[in-house]
Amino acid sequence: MSKRHTETKTYIKEALTHLLHEKSFEDLTISDITRKAGINRSTFYLHYKDKYDMMAQLKQDNLDSLYHILTQGNIEKDTHTTLVDTFAYIKNDFDFFQVIAKTAYVNFSKSIKDFAYDVILSFPQAQDIIINHYGVPYHYGLQVYLASIESLISYWVATGGKESPEEMTDIISKVLKIDETISHNNQQIE
């Protein structure tokens, strides 16, 4: 991807973020976005089919970046650092996350839950960890786990992200007993 392509997408994302503070996504027009971004409509359409495609791509770009953070290292060995990096990524682009969380079209809560589900499935030991943590059948434990993750992140974003990435890591680790659960599971493997 060229530098110009990346810059244009950045301008569009910044314009969208700013405009979503002023009006709803449903009321936004391509003209609003291009005017605010300082680009032509034709340039917008080189990148996106419409505003829904734009939102879907921007959301997916962020989820892909988060997924990369969560899966690039060894979350089972360095859970704390991986989670801090994840919350730091969100905090770094907090304004965008906050406005999309308020956008009905995005369905932020479902996006978080689906994303967490995909991440959990990418770890082979996840099923054992969840069963050991809750002591209930996997599918029930998984729903509680996902609901807890979604609820904590949604609340953090909705209330302005006052807690630092380190504080959020501590909160989510305590609620989900991540350190204890992973430690217990690693002992069983050894």
TrEMBL record:
<dbReference type="InterPro" id="IPR039532">
    <property type="entry name" value="TetR_C_Firmicutes"/>
</dbReference>
<dbReference type="GO" id="GO:0003677">
    <property type="term" value="F:DNA binding"/>
</dbReference>
<dbReference type="Pfam" id="PF00440">
    <property type="entry name" value="TetR_N"/>
</dbReference>
<feature type="domain" description="HTH tetR-type">
    <location>
        <begin position="6"/>
        <end position="66"/>
    </location>
</feature>
<protein>
    <submittedName>
        <fullName>TetR family transcriptional regulator</fullName>
    </submittedName>
</protein>
<dbReference type="InterPro" id="IPR009057">
    <property type="entry name" value="Homeodomain-like_sf"/>
</dbReference>
<feature type="DNA-binding region" description="H-T-H motif">
    <location>
        <begin position="29"/>
        <end position="48"/>
    </location>
</feature>
<dbReference type="Pfam" id="PF14278">
    <property type="entry name" value="TetR_C_8"/>
</dbReference>
<dbReference type="InterPro" id="IPR001647">
    <property type="entry name" value="HTH_TetR"/>
</dbReference>
<keyword id="KW-0238">DNA-binding</keyword>
<dbReference type="InterPro" id="IPR050624">
    <property type="entry name" value="HTH-type_Tx_Regulator"/>
</dbReference>
